[in-house]
């Protein structure tokens, strides 16, 4: 199936879902016993890049702010944004770049809390192909793993290849999801290289199944790969919801900012101990290592840096088929706000 046909099918699916769920008011947040009932879809609950979502629940920060939150896991950010648009969830923990991509589709989504200034992603290459694939220019003719077409890993893969002078016709993007499906894809010849996160990175490198080609878990690696910051993991909602329920959005911001502050003040071992035991996958030491390798991505305050937002637009404006034609009309100030985070930070002083 061609990329264009895939996009058309996805858009038709979204339109159909919107018709079916048209009776839902996306601006409304359900209440029970006077407490907001919020469902947040997370683009991979077990991924270290989205660790603040479950950690906020485990630390009791949602309850402390008088909100009831249900976390749902979904491996693809593209699927999470669809659930947000159809009103099935009130918020998403996913990559900021979806807010820019959706504005190009005339949908208003806004990031409220920015967890990280870098993607936290790693481009892995299978051990058997490591000698032949030493930089993005070697992606030509290769099968490259992404979470799904239209996902943030898809955007980033196109950007890395594009900066090496390659177009999407020069390589094949393969949907492999994350975790075990990613590992299976690489180990059974489904992909030659691919983009993923910890703890998958830690597992594959420790086992010798893969090697790190590009590391975007820190600022230096991200600037080298993408020419600047690339804010990624964040909390975003529909603009209508933000405008209709600023008090509830403030409670969410308070909860997540408290968690980011907690992360900054605690060790990887303490963070791992606070997470659900099953997230360690039977290897607590490796899980601690995966947190240690990625924890520097979190910014500690939840603020969006304008430089980062601009670089996301620069990259999508070149490599996203949705954004490129509308780059000059994108209003970055509508894709994020620091208002709620600043209030949360002020209240903690």
TrEMBL record:
Residues 54-266 form the SsuA/THI5-like domain. GO terms for cellular component: periplasmic space. It comes from the Bacteria. Keywords: Signal. Pfam families: NMT1. One of its GO terms (biological process) is alkanesulfonate transmembrane transport. The keyword Amino-acid biosynthesis does not apply. It is found in: Periplasm. The keyword Signal applies. InterPro entries: SsuA/THI5 (IPR015168). Its main location: periplasm. This is ABC transporter substrate-binding protein. The lineage of its organism: Bacteria, Bacillati, Actinomycetota, Actinomycetes, Mycobacteriales.
């Amino acid at each position: 199936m061609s990329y264009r046909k895939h996009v058309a099918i996805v858009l038709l699916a979204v339109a159909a879902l919107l018709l079916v769920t048209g009776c839902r008011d996306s601006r409304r947040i359900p209440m029970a016993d006077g407490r907001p009932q919020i469902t947040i879809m997370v683009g991979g609950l077990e991924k270290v890049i989205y660790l603040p979502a479950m950690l906020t629940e485990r630390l009791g920060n949602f309850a402390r702010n008088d909100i009831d939150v249900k976390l749902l896991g979904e491996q693809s950010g593209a699927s999470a944004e669809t659930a947000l648009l159809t009103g099935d969830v009130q918020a998403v923990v996913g990559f900021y770049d979806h807010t820019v991509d959706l504005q190009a589709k005339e949908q208003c989504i806004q990031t409220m809390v920015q967890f990280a200034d870098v993607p936290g992603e790693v481009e892995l290459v299978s051990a058997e192909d490591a000698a032949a694939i030493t930089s993005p220019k070697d992606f030509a003719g290769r099968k490259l793993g992404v979470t799904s077409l239209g996902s943030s890993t898809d955007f980033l893969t196109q950007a890395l290849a594009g900066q090496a002078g390659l177009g999407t016709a020069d390589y094949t993007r393969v949907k492999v999801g994350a975790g075990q499906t990613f590992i299976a894809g690489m180990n059974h010849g489904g992909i030659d290289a691919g983009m993923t996160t910890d703890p998958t990175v830690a597992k594959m490198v420790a086992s010798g199944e893969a090697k790190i080609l590009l590391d975007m878990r820190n600022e230096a690696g991200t600037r080298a790969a993408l020419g600047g910051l690339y804010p990624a993991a964040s909390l975003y909602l529909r603009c209508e919801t933000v405008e209709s329920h600023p008090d509830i959005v403030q409670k969410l911001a308070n909860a997540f900012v408290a968690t980011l502050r907690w992360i900054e003040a605690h060790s990887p071992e303490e963070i791992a101990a606070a997470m659900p035991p099953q997230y360690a996958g039977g290897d607590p030491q490796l899980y601690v290592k995966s947190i240690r390798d990625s924890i520097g991505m979190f910014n500690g305050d939840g603020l969006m840096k304008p430089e980062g937002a601009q670089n996301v637009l620069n990259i999508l404006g070149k490599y996203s088929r949705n954004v490129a034609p509308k780059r000059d009309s994108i209003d970055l100030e509508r894709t994020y706000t620091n208002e709620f985070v600043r209030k949360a930070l002020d209240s903690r002083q």
